[in-house]
TrEMBL record:
Record-given protein name: ISL3 family transposase
Domain of life (superkingdom): Bacteria
HTH IS21-type domain boundaries: 279-340
Annotated source species: Paracraurococcus lichenis
A Pfam short name: Zn_ribbon_ISL3
InterPro entries associated with the record: HTH_IS21_transposase_type (IPR017894), Transpos_ISL3 (IPR047951), Transposase_DDE (IPR002560), Transposase_Znf (IPR029261)
Length: 377
């Protein structure tokens, strides 16, 4: 063996010491040397310098007369594989760098560590990594994941008992998931979300498996159901909260009223809007019973698809009702009413259908009052 150091590189010249080598085809060991050649292998660095092995390798004649291979090169199984350009220990170190950092970042770190390698080579080393064998999955979780959010989606399958990813499917089609489930009959329990695609895939691919909802979707479903139930009785809930927050012995406060306005009252507007919502829900329910999908009901009624689905799930149109609130005008209301009556002021006003604001004209001055009579201008 010979060591040839330079300023940035170390070359180690060596040769094999065994007298025989086995034929890779028939396995018969042969001592008959045919010729020599030089084989260069990149190796782990030495004191911060790039290292290389320069091996004087041999070619042997096969001793088996019936073997189809007449000449073969000697193998170095403990050092490098056939046709390899780097030693096994260097390839293992670069493989770990690729697994940790990927191609571009791994290249920069490997160059800094005197193990130069290209990004594509690092990725090839990662692709050839042999994964440890794992037992067949029994309890799995299925969900979608985004190749590109909003455009392309795939399916991820996880082993919930070992907390490991089992498979990444290229799409989220029911046929693809069902095919994978047929190939893994060991699956007994499947956790999934409310997607109908996964439900159909499980019925087709693993009909005997038990379907369960994971913890997040279970709580999410419960929250949706509770919100829908409360939304139908929002006025009663707000009134109950008002009673709870009122100290014992406090006299009931009269709802503030707006002075000197004309047009429909607030209660009439609320009844009108409630009737409109109920009419929409009636038409929506009729179309739904005729098997019209929500995506077609929404444009027909001038609503969003999400709103249509929420109303159908709740079983009715939501009620938007707020309890009467105290106004900053209340301490001065009696004085203003007295002035209003004593001075003989005339008032005219307008309340828009989409507004909770009263415009009151006192003399030549236009004043604006908000919900409950709050003075704004």
């Amino acid at each position: 063996m010979q060591i040839l150091p330079t300023s940035d590189r170390v070359t180690i010249v060596a040769h094999a010491t065994t007298a025989r080598s086995a034929c890779p085809s028939c396995g018969v060991a042969s001592p008959r040397v045919h010729s020599y050649y030089v084989r260069t292998l990149a190796d782990l660095p030495w004191q911060g310098r790039v290292a290389a092995l320069q091996i004087r390798a041999r070619r042997f004649r096969c001793a088996n007369a019936d073997c189809q291979r007449q000449v073969f090169a000697e193998r170095l199984p403990e050092m490098a594989g056939p046709w390899a350009r780097r030693s096994e220990r260097l390839a293992e170190a670069q493989r770990h760098i690729g697994l940790a950092l990927g191609g571009a970042a791994g290249t920069r770190l490997a160059t800094r560590l005197a193990m130069p390698v290209s990004g594509p080579t690092l990725l090839r080393l990662v692709a050839t990594t042999k994964l440890p064998a794992s037992p067949p999955p029994r309890v799995i979780g299925i969900d979608e994941w985004a190749w590109r959010r909003g455009l392309n989606y795939g399916t991820i399958v996880c082993d919930l008992e070992r907390q490991q990813t089992v498979e990444l499917l290229p799409d989220r089609n029911a046929e693809t998931v069902a095919t994978w489930l047929r190939q893994h009959p060991s699956v007994e329990v499947i956790a999934r979300d409310r997607s109908s695609v996964f439900g159909r895939a499980i019925r087709e691919g693993a009909p005997d498996a038990t379907e369960v909802a994971d913890r997040w979707h279970l709580l999410h479903n419960l929250g949706d159901a509770l919100w829908a139930a409360i939304g139908r009785h929002r006025g009663a809930v707000a009134a109950a909260l008002t009673v709870v927050d009122t100290p014992p012995g406090t006299p009931a406060q009269e709802a503030p009223r707006v002075i000197g306005t004309t047009g429909p009252t607030l209660d009439a507007l609320r009844r009108q809007r409630s009737d409109e919502r109920q009419a929409r829900y009636t038409a929506m329910r009729r179309l739904h019973e005729e098997s019209v999908p929500a995506r077609l009901i929404a444009p027909a009624l001038g609503m969003s698809q999400r709103t249509v689905e929420r109303w159908l799930t709740a079983g009715g149109a939501p009620e938007h009702r707020r309890p009467p609130v105290a106004s900053m005008l209340d301490p001065f209301r009696r004085f203003l009413e007295q002035r209003w009556a004593a001075d003989g002021l005339t008032a005219s006003g307008y309340r828009g259908l989409g507004s909770e604001i009263d415009y009151v004209k006192v003399g030549d001055e236009l004043q604006m009052f908000g919900r409950g009579g709050d003075y704004l201008v």
